Amino acid sequence: MHNHKAPYAIIAKPIGPICNLDCKYCYYLEKQQLFQRNTSFRMSNEVLESFIRQYIASQDFSEVVFSWQGGEPTLLGVNFFRKVVELQKRYANGKKMSNALQTNGVLLDDRWCEFLAENRFLVGLSIDGPRGLHDCFRVDKHQRPTFDSVMKGVEFLEKHNTQFNTLTVVNDINSRQPLKVYRFLKELGEGFMQFIPLVERKPGKEAKELGLDLSMPPVQSEKDNESSVTEWSVKPGQFGEFYIQIFDEWVRCDVGKGFVQFFDVALGNWMGLGSGLCQFAPTCGHASVLEHNGDLYSCDHYVYPQCKLGNILERPLYELMDSNLQLQFGRNKLDLLPQDCISCEVRFACNGECPKHRFLRTYSGEPGLSYLCSAYKRIFGHMDPYMQVIARIVSSGNEASLIMDYVADEDRQKRFKTAKRNEPCPCGSGKKFKNCCGP
């Protein structure tokens, strides 16, 4: 058995970039241009078996987690994933197998959801909010809205008690209505939410030569600047407001009931436990992408020729993950961190953010500043006093939900301090403040 020097995860794309939708902001559809025109994007049995066998063997854990994405993986049909489960059982060697499937939900039906529930797949459902917000960008190949089709898929998931979370792309439109998005998502699934900021840039010369519509990973040069982002990308100021409004409602009403990945990850950093998300970890390089043909790339956002590590049919998976190219890729996140970031008061929570977004320059002129830097400074600064309290609560062995009592008391005190004589008393007595608690 060969074990990677550090834990790693592989996102498998068994149908590559092929999808039944045509989401206007999608960064992966264009990856078709990186393969030959007559390519079959269906992962072959040879690649599938090699991947499952190698991945299980290289994981020195009692549980091995497989992540299946696309494109749209449900296009492969249920029988493909029956084969997945069969191969996992064959090579499990006493380890527990877990599967996560990311889907747009459009093709879900009784057959799919029976299979997913029976085999305990965790489904990630892509949905950008209620109808008007979701349908702004998430359309099918005929440019028709998809909200109703997705909600039909939700009905099948709920009918078969299939476990699912929601994944929402935060773009220029839905970022303007954070509470509308959050309250809608709270009603879906089990209240687990993941938000991904949409930041894409218009193509440069190298991307255009490959026939791509979006920019390749940041090249730290004088030409990198904020003005190059696409019109549907989220604005830093709006992104900061998006998370702050959601956090303020969550910390007052939903702690222990609604779970936002961003808040859970942040708490880990506040408690000194480290980030469970590469985006906010000091280094990266532990989450790679396997394309349909066995090609392995450094990261989901770096599926480009210069970030191709090799092919698992030609070189063992563990060797590719331990290659100098991948190790340097992971170290670059820290090694290229600007001095302004190193001395930043929220570095412990941010760590420079995702390298994909680090295409601006700092005030002192250094390259490598995140496009969302101002947003994260504002978000983490706002969360800090509450996160400190939650960290103390959890460290003492109590439930994090106790923070809601703390915040309620704090809010009450603020209302007493600002209450006017003839307003209803904040204590709830129904009397005027001057005739109740005012004196």
**What integer is the average pLDDT?**
91
Tell me the Rg in angstroms: 23 Å
* H/E element sequence: EHEHEHEHHEHEHHEHEEEHHHHEEHH
Give start-end ranges of low-pLDDT stretches.
Answer: 1-5, 219-226
Shape: globular
* Main sheet makeup: 10 strands, mixed
- Please estimate the helix content: 25-40%
Strand arrangement within the widest β-sheet reads 7-6-5-4-3-2-1-8-9-10
Q: Which percent range describes the beta-strand content?
A: 5-15%
What oligomeric arrangement do these chains adopt? single chain
Structural class: alpha/beta
End-to-end span in angstroms? 76 Å
Overall strand count: 12
Separate helix tally? 15
Provide a compact summary of the structure.
The protein is an alpha/beta fold and 439 residues long. The chain has 15 helices and 12 strands.
What keyword list fits this structure?
439 residues, 10-stranded mixed sheet, alpha/beta, two-stranded antiparallel ribbon, disordered N terminus, 36% helix
What does this structure look like?
It is a single chain. Helix content is 36%, strand content 13%. It is an alpha/beta fold and 439 residues long. It has a ten-stranded mixed sheet. Strands 11-12 form a two-stranded antiparallel ribbon. Helix 8 runs parallel beside helix 14 (373-395).
Task: Please render the helix and strand layout as text.
Elements (H helix, E strand, L loop, with lengths): L8 E4 L32 H14 L4 E6 L9 H14 L4 E8 L6 H9 L2 E6 L4 H4 L12 H13 L4 E7 L7 H9 L5 E6 L7 H5 L26 H18 L5 E2 H10 L16 E4 L4 E3 L10 E4 L5 H5 L2 H12 L3 H4 L4 H4 L9 E2 L5 E3 L3 H23 L7 H16 L21
Parallel strand pairs: 1-2, 1-8, 2-3, 3-4, 4-5, 5-6, 6-7
Antiparallel strand pairs: 8-9, 9-10, 11-12
